[in-house]
Amino acid sequence: MDREWYHEDRGTRADGVRRSPSGRVPQWSIDDALGRPAAPPAWRPAPTMTTTTTRRRRLTARARLRLGTAAVLALVAVLYLTPSLFDRFVLPVALPHVPGADVPPRGVGAHDAPLGTPPRAPASTAYSLLESPVESQEWVAYDPCRPVHYVVRPDGAPAGTEGLIQEAVAEVSAATGLQFVDDGTTTEAPTEKRDLYQPELYGEAWVPLLITWTSPAEIPGLAGDVAGLGGSDYAQTPGKPLVYVGGQVQLDAPDAVGTLRVPGGRAYLKATIMHELAHVVGLDHVEDPNELMYHENVGRVSFGEGDRAGLARLGAGPCVPEL
After folding, report:
1. 148 vs 69, which has greater pLDDT?
2. pTM of the entire structure?
């Protein structure tokens, strides 16, 4: 029915920021990348004064200077000796403002609490979650404290598919509790290496889920008996869990035309879209033909109990407002 999506770890990168030979990013490099002028000296020597009173004041100023300089040097030493502090607390804030940055400002669209609640999950273990790329995190999900925006490229949509994508999205939203937002149409083309930050198309936010009607001529992975492809990339801010962003669903339009010709074809096609959307939010294939996440379509047109149990779990992922 489809193949697994190839995930790419697009963790925070300091593109456009020069690093020192040790790999650390000094403050002067960020200032330079941001186009900021060099900071002025913190203290300039006063003209020589000869009175006793002035000399005492000058000695007091020097003492304060030594104390301030020592504090600054200590802070620099801490950041230099523990670059993880710099990477965790300083770099994520500065990076989105560097010219040519490939990440949006932090917290765009984030809320204080999940926007929806997963339904009560069936008592089934007949599901499989997509493997996490890191050992420290068992599975990856979308942030439930943010809406999952999606766009559709309508080019090549077969006749008779009107509203089908929205119906499939509603099924996945109900099964996960994730709140999906229809942002309309787009001109963006599908690709296996998608930029996760495209401010010229989508503003200062992670790219929305992209759903396209396409063909094997445009996406070779759809060749043969593959009806669709689905999956998500992930992003991470230092010290926080990985979160899915920038998903895609690629549907084989010529294949869909054939599906619509058979009795019940519209229901089968909707089930295909639901299957791919389930990959997008984190479900993997299973070996049970009673589940929609079985690797091929054997006539099922709705989520099984195992599918629903897995989707409910994926709707309860961590909120990461720092991303």
Report:
1. 148
2. 0.73
